Amino acid sequence: MLAQEPVIRLSVFAAVLVAMALLEHAFPRRPQRLSWRRWPANFGLVAISSLLLRLVAPAGAVGVALWAEARGLGLMPALGVPFWVAAPVAVVLLDLLIYFQHRVFHAVPVLWRLHRVHHADPELDASSGLRFHPVEILLSLAIKAVAVVALGAPAESVLIFEVLLNATALFNHANLAVPAWLDRPLRQVLVTPDMHRVHHSEIRAETDSDFGFCLSCWDRIFGTYVAEPSKGQLGMTIGVEGFRADAEQRIDRLLLQPMKPSGR
């Protein structure tokens, strides 16, 4: 499985992206006005980030896990935790790490400027799940690498986590109308589009809520869960004030946006 890591990740990514695009078209949650004008920059950012990751850390988090595993590094090997326990525990703990990382990127001004590129998308669809500044992507990899070594996470669990993270990011950013009868039980486990959309509200209290990417339990446990936006799913305003204009969606503007004042 690990030898096929790039193929597995790319295949799942492409399949989920196509599925979300088709479902968004068939069952849209909100009317979209700017979609085609946002896509070049959103997809451009992920292309730049992917290239940088290949140049800086071609083996990625899975490679770090293999390196640590070969040296017996990390808490779980030190404790003698069997693989069948270590693998699922590592996936859950890495998801918890992403939850707290997300909160930190909102709380620290210089990190918020990087993360704001993601929030400044004036509409949400699956492509929004790819819209992150390349520097944020590199920082995220560094944080994950430290956690993977500290835990001694099995490489297989790191691959599963990375696939889940990418797939759920596409899903929970999708402009997809999930029926209420399905959304209610689904969000007891996973972050759904309606749940995550609250996080992209222009209202600060709602922006600083619903930080989870995959598992929805962390927001409930740590008191950051907001079920619905105050203005409703159709009435809420998405994005960051001052960054909604068409010109702000160009890739050059997005790459330079962290140099601009806060925008909170």
From TrEMBL:
Ranges of residues in domain Fatty acid hydroxylase: 89-224
Main location: membrane
Cellular localisation: Membrane
InterPro entries in the record: Fatty_acid_hydroxylase, Sterol_Desaturase_Related
TM ranges: 6-23, 43-67, 79-100
Any one GO BP annotation for this protein: lipid biosynthetic process
Recorded GO MF terms: iron ion binding; oxidoreductase activity
UniProt protein name: Sterol desaturase family protein
Organism (species): Neoroseomonas eburnea
